[in-house]
Design brief:
This protein is α/β, with parallel strands linked by helices and about 525 residues long. About 30% of the residues lie in helices and about 25% in strands. Strands 11, 12, 13, 16, 19, 20 and 21 form a seven-stranded mixed sheet that branches. Helix 11 packs across helix 12. The longest helix is centred in the last third of the chain and has 22 residues. The protein starts with a strand and ends in a 9-residue tail after the last strand.
Length: about 525
């Protein structure tokens, strides 16, 4: 049986057909506004190129940047009733207080503050004000708001009040969709609340997008199950994506990093994914992206749900190369983007791009090199130096030790990467240009537990870790992972001295293969 991996980016939609560990074919198509057309073109191209019977494709994995782009572009967002349980303690900082004004308006700019919430040790700040919840529901019905978020102070320690508020709201507003912050974020209130509001604003778009993917696959004659990649390099089923679209944020760079690990067999290294406009850089640990340990900015909003530790620079194959008045040469951040195949000089255009530079230097075997044969050698040298310096600084930013580790270059623009970067060797694997789709195709099923345990009544730290691992494993198996393939990739506990009961926060994450998949490097 075969697997189909698809990555829907802002510019290109890539698809690959895989059988076991072999990549049979890859294909690039332009991303289209309706999603469906671009997906169909990419998958049809890959299937035709591989020459396989589509009836034998039993799994489809899709990565998408649609939800990230919606937040960044302030498009396709729903108005959200943002309910916070925390008065009188949090009155000075209302919901969305630190959001950019345009994003706050796009998300409805409707916040409510209610008595309730918990102290850090589990004691109530105040009982839940059920009368105020009823008044809020009346206002929601009047405003015809369709989605809401509920955030309570320290709900990761105790989520009962969030659940009680949700149940009461659904009784008064039966058609309302409610997102609980404790299902998404971590301890910090403002960041967790922002993540919940953002998730709620994307619910309608997530339904449309997932249904569009389903329609595209059905129209192509594919009736198998499909999964969406999330930002930790693993998979969600379609129904989970409809509930938690924010978990797909940064899944594009994550897919590229997972694809890089698979194509090279490296479990540790720096992955540099060079596209047409930007370069994404991140570190691999155990074959998965290193997770960010701090607050992550999404569209100008601070959030604290899990995200890969990936950052971007304004360098890509379509980056503009300009000679300044002082004879200095700059590369980027402006870019011709997806128009590179018509505007770059090696493709017959009249715009000097980073791709033209490396082709003129004999480092990139694409386009017509004769069109750039007469470029000024001084411009070539300074542009090549600028490109190399940008890449070196980006890689150094991701290193956490002076030990030599491989640099893996992937993406359609990875011809910009030299064969050696400072003291590090560069690997450019086969099928590097569609590494993102490969990463989607080989994604695994995960299970995760992140909870506070009380080490009392005879429970030891190891027993709590074992309980968390067993629960995480159960979640992975319930999502479709094969029990025998499950392995633990993250395991940590942090003692919380300020909580009663000798409390400790335990985080365990496991991954496993789906039937017929063999993705471990």
């Amino acid at each position: 049986m075969y697997r189909l991996g698809i990555d829907v980016g802002g510019t290109n939609t890539d698809a690959v057909i895989m059988h076991g560990r072999a990549v049979l074919a890859g294909f690039k198509a332009s991303t289209t506004p309706d999603v469906t057309t671009g997906v169909i073109e990419a998958l049809e191209g890959a299937i035709s190129k591989a020459g396989v019977d589509r009836a034998k494709i039993d799994k489809v994995m899709i990565g998408t940047t649609h939800f990230t782009n919606a937040v960044i572009e302030r498009k396709h967002l729903n108005a959200v009733a943002a309910v916070r349980l925390g008065l009188p303690a949090t009155a000075c900082l209302p919901p969305m207080v630190d959001w950019p004004s345009d994003l706050r308006e796009a998300s409805g700019n409707t916040g409510y503050m209610v008595r309730g919430g918990y102290e850090f040790d589990g004691r109530e700040i105040a009982p839940l004000d059920t009368d105020e919840i009823d008044r809020i529901c009346d206002d929601i019905n009047t405003r015809k708001i369709q989605v809401a978020s509920v955030s309570s102070v320290f709900s990761p320690i105790n989520r009962q009040m969030e659940e009680a508020a949700r149940d009461q709201m659904l009784q008064k507003c039966p058609d309302l969709s409610v997102v609980l912050s404790s299902d998404i974020g971590r301890i910090g209130l403002l960041e967790r609340e922002s993540a919940a509001i953002m998730n709620a604003s994307l619910l309608a778009l997530s339904v449309r997008t997932v249904d569009a993917f389903s329609a595209a696959l059905i129209s192509a004659g594919l009736t198998c199950d499909f999964y969406i990649t999330q930002n930790d390099g693993t998979l969600m089923n379609a129904q989970t994506v409809k509930r938690f679209p924010v978990l797909t944020f940064a899944s594009g760079p994550t897919n590229s990093m997972r694809g890089a690990a698979f194509l090279t067999g490296e479990k540790s290294g720096i992955v540099v994914d060079i596209g047409g406009t930007t370069t994404d850089v991140g570190a691999l640990q155990q074959g998965f992206p290193r997770q960010a340990a701090t607050v992550v900015d999404i569209g100008g909003v601070r959030t604290n749900f899990r995200m890969p530790d990936v950052f971007s620079i304004g360098l890509g194959g379509g980056s503009l190369v300009k000679r300044q008045h002082d004879e200095q040469v700059t590369v980027g951040p402006q870019s011709v983007g997806y128009r590179i195949t018509s505007q770059a000089q090696v493709f017959g255009g009249d715009t000097l791009t980073a791709t033209d530079i490396v082709v003129a230097l004999g480092e990139g075997g694409i386009g017509d090199a004769s069109r750039v044969a007469n470029l000024d050698p001084q411009v070539l040298g300074k542009a090549r130096e600028a490109i190399t310096q940008m890449l070196e600084r980006a890689v150094e930013r991701s290193r956490i030790s002076p030990e030599p580790i491989p640099v893996i270059a992937v993406g359609g623009g990875s011809i910009l990467m030299p064969d050696k970067l400072a003291d590090l060797d560069v690997i450019r694997p086969e099928n590097f240009s569609v590494a993102n789709a490969v990463g989607a195709a080989i994604a695994q099923i995960s299970g995760e537990v992140d909870r506070i345990y009380a080490l009392e009544n005879g429970l030891t730290r190891e027993e709590c870790l074992e309980q968390a691992a067993a629960e995480a494993t159960q979640k992975a198996v319930a999502s479709g992972a094969i029990l025998e393939t499950i392995e633990t990739i993250e395991r940590e506990d942090v003692p919380l001295a300020y909580l009663p009961g000798n409390a400790t926060r335990i985080h365990v994450k496991v991954v496993g293969e789906m039937e017929g998949a063999d993705a471990n490097p």
